[in-house]
Design a protein that fits this description.
Blueprint: E1 4-9, H1 13-16, H2 31-43, E2 47-53, E3 93-98, H3 109-115, E4 120-126, H4 128-141, E5 145-149, E6 153-154, H5 158-172, E7 174-176, H6 178-186
Parallel strand pairs: 1-2, 1-4, 2-3, 4-5, 4-6, 5-7
Helix pairs in contact: 2-6, 4-5
GO molecular function: hydrolase activity
InterPro entries: Isochorismatase-like_dom (IPR000868), Isochorismatase-like_hydrls (IPR050272), Isochorismatase-like_sf (IPR036380)
Protein name: Isochorismatase family protein
Length: about 190
């Protein structure tokens, strides 16, 4: 079996809380499916990576050339949405702070996954066409099997959601139903 890890992308107030600076209503559709994936990964003693989009106050950040200043460290928007983030008593849950779309870029994510025998990256969270897509592409480029549960990710633009999932499934990995990803995290299916 291909050892899976769960990579949870940007489940933060910025996207999920109605007062978040990047909030969009359909982001909330990911909350319950991602919680179910977290429960399954915890029960299966899987490595869980929680990513945060977080930027430094007062310093230039290249991403600002494309996006307005957002998710500033220490602020409400940069914090995890209620019920998300690593459990403090579980050493198999880690946090990766990222300053670009991909959780692999300029982080030790690939190294950590390889050192822990991970072969499959189950990637969920927000937004499909930006951070989920970029992380999926870099997971593939780093030699990991990519799995994206359809119901556990979304975008504020339906056309980009569908196009991104189609690209991921065709070129980078497998877009699956939530139950299949839950089964893989529980150890019920080969990866």
């Amino acid at each position: 079996m291909s050892e899976p890890a769960l990579i949870v992308i940007d489940m933060q107030n910025s996207f999920l809380h109605p007062k978040g600076e990047n909030y969009y209503a359909s982001a909330g559709e990911t909350v319950e499916p991602v919680r179910r994936l977290l429960d399954a990964a915890r029960k299966g003693n899987r490595l869980i990576v929680h990513t945060l989009d977080r930027h430094r106050r007062g310093l230039i950040d290249f991403e600002q050339k494309r996006l307005p200043e957002h998710c500033l460290e220490g602020g409400f928007d940069a914090a995890y949405f209620e019920g998300f983030g690593p459990l403090t008593d579980n050493p198999r849950e880690v946090e990766i702070v990222k300053r670009r779309y991909s959780a692999f870029f300029a982080t030790d994510l690939g190294l950590m996954l390889r050192e822990n025998g991970v072969e499959t990256a189950i990637i969920c969270g927000v937004k499909t066409n930006v951070c989920v897509r970029a992380t999926s592409q870099d997971a593939f480029a780093n030699g990991f099997r990519v799995v994206v549960p359809r119901q556990a990710t979304n975008s504020n633009r339906a056309n980009l959601q569908e196009a991104s999932l189609e690209d991921i499934d065709r070129y980078l990995g497998h877009v699956v139903e939530l139950d299949e990803a839950l089964s893989q995290l529980a150890g019920d299916a080969n990866g």
